[in-house]
Automatic annotation (TrEMBL):
GO biological process: cell adhesion
Compartment list: Secreted, Extracellular space, Extracellular matrix, Basement membrane
Segments forming domain Laminin G: 430-629, 641-818, 825-990, 1042-1208, 1215-1388
Stated name of the protein: Laminin subunit alpha 4
Amino acid sequence: MKVCAKLYFLSNQKKCLPCNCKGHSETCEDITGVCTSCQDHTTGNFCEICEDGYMPDVANHGRHSCQPCACPLSSPSNNFAEHCDRSSNILRCNCQEGYAGHYCERCAPGFYGNPMVIGDSCKSCDCNGNSDPNHIFNECHNVTGFCQNCWGDTAGANCERCAPGFYGDAISAKNCRECDCASSHCDMHTGECLPESTTVNLCNISCDECIWHLIGDLRASNKTLDQVKVSVLNISTGAAANDRLKYYNYTAQHIDFVGCFFSPSNLKRSDANGFVQKVLVTANVYNNIVQYIEEANITGLTTMDLASDGINTQLGFLKTQSENVFKESVSLRSEHFGITHFLVQHCLIILTEEVAEGTLNRSFNYCCKLSSSSPSMVVFLVENLSELVPELLDKLRVVEEKNQVNNVTTNIMRIRELIAQARSVAKKVQVSMKFNGQSSVQVQPHTNLEDLKTVTTISLFIRVDPDKDPIEDRFIFYLGDRNGRKDYMGLAIKNDNLVYVYNLGEEDVEIPLGSKPVSQWPPVFNLIKVERLGRHGKVFLTVPSQTSTDEQKFIQKGEAFGTDSLFDLDPEDTVFFVGGVPADVRLPPALSLAPFVGCIELASLNNDVISMYNFKQTHKMDVVASTPCPRYKLAFSQSRIASYLFDGTGYALINNMERRGKFGIVTRFDIAVRTVANNGILLLMVNGDNFFMLELKNGFLRLMYDFGFSGGPIVMESNSPKLQINDARYHEVSVIYHYSKKFILLVDKSHVKSMENEKKTLPFSDIYIGGAPSHILLSRPDLSSLVGLKGCVKGFQFQKKDFNLLEEPGTIGISSGCPEEYFMSRKAYFTGEGYLGSGAKISPFDSFEGGLNFRTLQPTGLLFYHSEGSDEFTITLENGAVVLNSRGTRVKSQKKQYNDGITHFLVASVNNNKYELVVDDKDKHEKKRPTAAPSASTVRNFYFGGSPSSSIKNFTGCISYAYISRQDRDIEPEDFQKYTENVQTSLQDCPSSDFLCLSKVGRDKSNLPKGLLGLNSDEQKPGETEDTPCYLSPRPRATRHAHHYGGTANSRQEFTDIPGSHFSLSLKTQSSFGLIFYTSDEAEDNFMALFLAHGKLVYTFNLGQQRVKIKSLEKYNDGAWHNVIFIRDGNLGRLVIDGLTVLEDRAQGSNVSWHVSSQLYLGGVPPGRAQRNIQRNSAYSFTGCVKNLQLNGQWMSSMFQTFGVTPCFEGLSEPGTYFSEEGGYVVLDDTFNLGLKFELVVEVRPRVASGVLLHVYTAAGEYLTIVVLCSQVIVLVNNGVREFFTQVTPRLGLCDGSWHRITLIRDANVVQLDVDSEVNHVVGPLNPSTKSARTPVFIGGAPESLLPEGIATRRDYTGCMRKLTVNESQVSFSKAALVSGAVSVGSCPAA
């Protein structure tokens, strides 16, 4: 018998043919050729199929082979797929039980572990049967295995013990019972009562998960001890990132720490650092939208005469292109970030379409909901709206200028507000970027460059690796003019030294830090801080120890030449580049160096948290190829205590508190706070009409709550020293709700106060910490004056369960860490009665330099004082001029109007030759110093803002960023918190000009006529007086919680998120016709309305084609309050009036319910709505008041904007337009145009001393603004050449409760102001290129973003206005293009 050799088989023709086993078997069956004993993980008749867990790979020189599925890793120990295949070059994994994700890269619900770590796998959660069955998909943490939802009063990593306050056997008997102890503390096994003590921080509860994985990593990695030290410093605890970002950073750490298990393609596939990469990659996608917006030609679309078919053609093209962009974005999605990217992309498509159609309502509501869903969503939204689509914002301004329609203008302003809020979140992303020697990032510059003038401080973390990248001369950052001219500052590496460079207008200052060459830095993140205070500069370096908690600190200082001290930046040309610059940016010679190689993370700018992820654009930045370096966030002593920084704009939100602990007989909240602020929210819970609030007010803790008590809200407050906690130290504050009827307040574990109430359970599920969204605060008068916390929170507990505030999905705008600089008081507000004193050693008569910012409206005041015997050294304001006086030698400024309410900076110096005084770098004067014997060096106090002995009037106003040459230290900003004497001086931020106005008349109040200060509204407490110098109160008496509508056709309030159809309200009106309530779907096919017709109430809604209409028999426009309930229950409608009259009607057909899901309008509707469903004469706003609007028995709290709505004032009224204290403005219709030549006349009766009366601006940056400032009227003009102004101070002032007539005449560059026949004028520079253009005219105020920088007051006008004429034509506010906010058109509270 013929026998074939190996690799051959015997065919039917008795020939030996080669086996077709793909090289995976040496034998095959005769006749059939079927392969036997397939090797290399193959199977099948011809070894052509891969075994389970393997996939074919033909890349090996064309040879068929089977490689382990990379599910998630190609290592056999970490391949968790039952099957896998690669079709269309996409790997698809069919995971084993317990694994999830496209590549089985994470554990499924109910399992834990990290499949991305060699040797690790997913294990079943072990919670000892004590896990909440309602949370089976979140039983334990998917990496650590810590149980997250222990129930049955259990706790611990495995729910293995009874929770604090309970005792028993959690594992076998499962009988945890509550401690029967007064302190609520007992032995967890026996129940024996224990004294209350500090909660033990068990490591398996609070330690970061990365520490556990660190142990495994150290075992898995074969590293030397020195390598391990460096690696430990680079493990990120993820304390500042959310769960997803933490996971991806953790993955990156393992790549860097254990070894490079992935090729670059594998890294991209696993989407390490996907969060960061998507922000950068999507920039290219959205740049396409810019092009499509331009082609849609929004400018043309907003003109009133464009043919509708042209719109449709453009819109169709735009939608097609948007869909293409949308598809492109889908292709970028990863599993974790795809949904976010998908929604944001879709939001932008809708926005683009709707701008083309001329309305932004639906898009804004959609975008707004998206942005509030997660911080990462906001980052995406803001990057694409604000900067990646810059042309869109330009077109929004065109819409504002050319088509002043309510729904367009107001939503544009809301979008701008959203962008501003989102930028606040983006700038707090604490993640580094890695620069490859070609990349660069342009960071958003500081929002107010005026803040950087006197002091500029930038902190950042830098990591270089001298062993991998030899140290060369390289650029680090640059802040200054785009063309490298004017003032600038920057950082670089030169000659192996870190070098700080700055220029204030004369010569460069270079400060090299030679004490620690860069080549000697360890390959970890080092902390760098550069500081400029006037002419003085410093650079600091902090190197963390690799063996202990000790740090190495290095410092070098320098000084600019000449007298210039201010850092002047032009907002139009200022850029902030990190790592490198594009080719079109010109750097000054001192910084023209090669781009940086290494990792950089920005930390702060003037103590404000900043981030490179708040960028304008990036250049050649690829975080897949250049993975950001993870930073150990507790490496430096200033941040070793895990804490959260609140800057007054953000807040933490914990949804569903009871997922960690249940409300019980005793319910406890604990928070550790450190602050120097006077006011701020600590804890806030709101649910309809119920609320709970713990706040800081005037430095003292204050508790206020209402759970539907018969007597109204309960307030717990006192001026007890135990309640004052704004002393820059941490204080532990505990609030305990005992047996549902008593609140107990503890401070630093000591009982301070308690308050009893009716027995009611806590009706809340969510809690805000450190602040709250504006719509929550504005939902009720009790909360409207609250402000966000400025300070640090070390921890928050509910029922003794810790929460990581940064990991809560609802948290927005807070960051980790608690810098010591945040609690230094650099600013002080002086009332004219006080001063600050220090005993530090100075010698101003021999050698001295001192500088400070000041702001005041008083012409005279003592700024600085020092005396030695009869010799005095003073810096004062005298009749508006600044005067330096040393032993009788006086140096005086030329300008005499420094009491203008604007911040000014002065420097006074003394040397052997002269005395010198410089104000604002421009007003410079000096005098030769007379020969005198040097004074003896004695310790004498010096004072800011006044003194206890000087005959000069004490200062009234603000002093900030002061410095003086002291003998005990280098020049640095004075910390007023450390001064030994503080007499009646506030160390908070300087108040607005309105408070300065108050101070201006403060000591003269006894000379004012009786009643001048006025009394507060009906909410004011007895004995209090209103802080205002005006005769009339800023808050006329008004009905509590009631609002007045009318005056314009579209006066209204708008509400969102309306779940239900059972409404009630109270109504007072004398109108015969008008719309009271309206809601509908977007197409208005389904609607519900309440309106007036001939004085009768009409309630109507539809059911398909049928309508239910219920009309009262009596008239209710009698000026009295009436309670109205209107209900839709399926096809049944019910109208109940005053609890006596019940009217019903029913539609025929099925009983179909309808729940409102779109906006609800109260008092009126936007233009164009309700016309098809409501009779014409009732489809506009009614005139009258509404209070107590409720849905399903709960207060409506989701109101998000108002138009022409004020409090419901009581008492007499008179003709005019009233601008209420809540703020608002009117935009005139485009028939009124203030060009280069006009005459404007108006009569005003202010109730607050300062406010914006009128503002006009153009896209070219020109403006005209009229403000009232402390009984002065000021006109500020910028005609494109420069700013100029004139002002009039009437003899009798403006706040005497009388009407005052203001006339403004402009003729090009000449402006004349007449107030009550007192006249002043100014002649500005000519601008021959200026042309008269049609621009919006804002009356009574303007959006914050449109007002010029440096204006003395930015608040809206409060008071009455009447008889406004432009060029002798009467202005009717009822025909205005927009009435926004709290403005009552046609009616003013009488004086």
